[in-house]
From TrEMBL:
Residues 8-257 form the ABC transporter domain. GO terms for cellular component: plasma membrane. This is ABC transporter ATP-binding protein. Keywords: ATP-binding, Nucleotide-binding, Transport. SMART domains: AAA. It holds the Pfam family ABC_tran. The keyword ATP-binding applies. GO terms for molecular function: ATP binding; ATP hydrolysis activity.
Amino acid sequence: MEATTPILAAERVSLRFGGVRALTDVSFEVRKGEVFSIIGPNGAGKTSMVNCISGRYRPTEGRIRFDGQDITRLPTRKRAAIGIGRTFQNLALFGHMTVLDNIMVGRHHLLKHGFWTGMPFWLFGAQREEIAHRREVEEIIDFLEIQHVRKAVAGTLSYGLRKRVELARAVALRPKLILLDEPMAGMNLEEKEDMARFILDLNEEWGMTVLMIEHDMGVVMDISHRVMVLDFGRKIAEGRPEEVLADPHVRRAYLGEADEVVSEPEEAMEPVES
């Protein structure tokens, strides 16, 4: 992991919806080659932050930089083109399409566009490109171990498999940074272990930087290099997983631990004679 080079930087990002503040003055950096997790209680602003990074929301204040470029006002489709991929908290697959076709959708930004540049290509190179894209998709299918459902209709699959297909579609972008919004929500223990293994392999073998929202603290502790904690839209902690977990502010906000109150023991009551 390149410990000092940020691939993503959020600079004092705030987001408001009318009078509601979803994010307030949030700053952080994600370094190239790391797994960076965002945690916090429900409503803390985690998905709002990811939506600002992916372009779904535009920050009310502040800036977001990716690979040195200011992307604060860049459209979502252009963020995909420069190397930002994502999955969603709620599944966003095309349920009527096959697994293979869903993953192929993730290659759309790599296709040739435009009439004058596209016409010679479609005359002479379309078949070669189709073969290259399918080869890439088949590699992803093998990596995520979904060969047995590659021709199945996505809407007929189990929840765990659909989450894996959505990850495959995001990976098909070949992003530099992949945003994972609760990739293990609703999974059983075996499915979580598989997903954690895939995320680590994407990071270590495929060289993808990962920004992940996740509620399972066991997973966060096991696979994250660094963790940021949000509470009511504000950053309250950032650092290595063990440091963050030990922070008393985090334990109060995220784990629901109250401040310890020392009180004197109550005197035993004498039994009442009847």
